[in-house]
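TASK: fixed-backbone design
INPUT:
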């Protein structure tokens, strides 16, 4: 019995390490923004949470936040696929809405019985505008000057067709 428990502990530890490996370091400064991130995983190792913040070639910043349902190896694999797929789409210069649409087309089948909530943001420092699209994920919290967000037409999570 102890041998089986030890194997499970090692597996959970390795899955936790894999999850941390796909969480990138967030830069302290990005396209004139000051950045920080805090993450506390659940007690179950290897969830599907992820976030990313990258500067694009045109000087804009892309911010991606997501959560793939489930835990363990399957969730980590699906998280890596969606995370880096979205990162690549944003680097191609797509808008958040089109990046989510393409992700849905590309990854719905790979999710099987799982699903993913996503928030993709694009910050333009030249115009001080934040454009975002959500697929079932809570909207960003914007602190500062009052604004009137457009919140209609949010898409369902990926995997819900």
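OUTPUT:
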């Amino acid at each position: 019995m102890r041998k089986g428990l030890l194997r499970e502990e090692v597996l959970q530890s390795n899955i936790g390490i894999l999850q941390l490996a796909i969480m990138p370091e967030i830069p302290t400064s990005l396209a004139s923004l000051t950045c920080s991130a805090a993450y506390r995983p659940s007690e179950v190792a290897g969830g599907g949470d992820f976030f990313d913040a990258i500067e694009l070639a045109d000087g804009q910043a892309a911010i991606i936040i997501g959560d793939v349902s489930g835990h363990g190896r399957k969730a980590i694999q699906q998280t890596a696929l969606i995370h880096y797929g979205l990162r690549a789409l944003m680097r191609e210069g797509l808008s958040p809405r089109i990046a989510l649409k393409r992700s849905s087309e590309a990854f719905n089948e790979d999710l099987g019985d799982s699903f993913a909530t996503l928030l993709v943001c694009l910050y333009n420092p030249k115009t001080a505008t934040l454009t975002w699209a959500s697929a079932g994920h809570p909207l960003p919290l914007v602190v500062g000057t009052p604004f009137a967000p457009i919140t209609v037409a949010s898409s369902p999570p990926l995997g819900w067709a």
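COMMENT: Strands lie at 29-30, 33-34, 47-55, 61-71, 116-124, 129-135.
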